[in-house]
Write a structure and sequence with these properties.
Structural class: alpha/beta
CATH topology: Nucleotidyltransferase, domain 5
Strand content: 15-25%
CATH class: Alpha Beta
Radius of gyration: 16 Å
Number of domains: 1
Largest sheet: 5 strands, mixed
Order of helices and strands: EEEHEHEHHH
Helix content: 40-55%
Distance between the termini: 21 Å
CATH superfamily: Ribonuclease H-like superfamily/Ribonuclease H
């Protein structure tokens, strides 16, 4: 009897922003995390609609190029500036639409959940996240902050998926 090889989880992590959006792709091979790609998408100044269009197009290109199956995106946090929060919500919506339009499952994760998974503390700062992402993925240097946050979201989602598989296996 032929057994199929296990599906290798490939997660697109996303740290949405109105000026820069971090994206990162990570796979898991057994217990090994494998870096695939990352980028900080810098959006042009000017009209919000055009910036969102640029974000959508680049995310679709990234998805088509790397074929992730799941997108992990940071949940909305409360911002001090309501206008900034609104624009961030637009960027998140565009990112989620790009993912769903390309067949990806979307998982939302709290920033504190991501940081705790990567650093061990939910209130870790950006430098700590950058360092741990570099270590966990065996990168030569720290990724740019937004890209590091995106890679951290992908790693956190992979940890959660592994935990779900372990629980399902124990229940079977």
């Amino acid at each position: 009897m032929k057994t199929s090889s296990p599906i290798v989880p490939r997660v697109l992590g996303l740290d949405p922003g109105s000026q820069t959006t971090g994206v990162g792709i990570v796979e898991q091979h057994g217990t090994q995390l494998v870096w695939i790609a990352h980028e900080a998408i810098r959006l042009p100044k000017g009209d919000l609609g055009e910036r969102l269009h640029v974000l959508y197009k680049r995310l679709v290109e990234f998805i088509v190029q790397y074929h992730p199956t799941v997108m992990a995106i940071e949940k909305v946090f409360l911002a001090k500036n309501p206008q900034s929060a609104l624009v961030l919500g637009h960027a998140r919506g565009v990112a989620m639409l790009a993912a769903v339009n390309n067949g990806l499952e979307v998982q939302e994760l709290a920033a504190t959940e991501i940081k705790k998974s990567i650093v061990g503390r939910g209130r870790a700062d950006k430098k700590q996240v950058q360092h741990m992402v570099r270590v966990l993925l065996s990168l030569r240097e720290n990724p740019q902050e937004d890209a590091a946050d995106a890679l951290a979201a992908a790693i956190c989602q992979l940890h959660m998926m592994q935990m779900q598989r372990t629980i399902q296996g124990a229940l079977a």
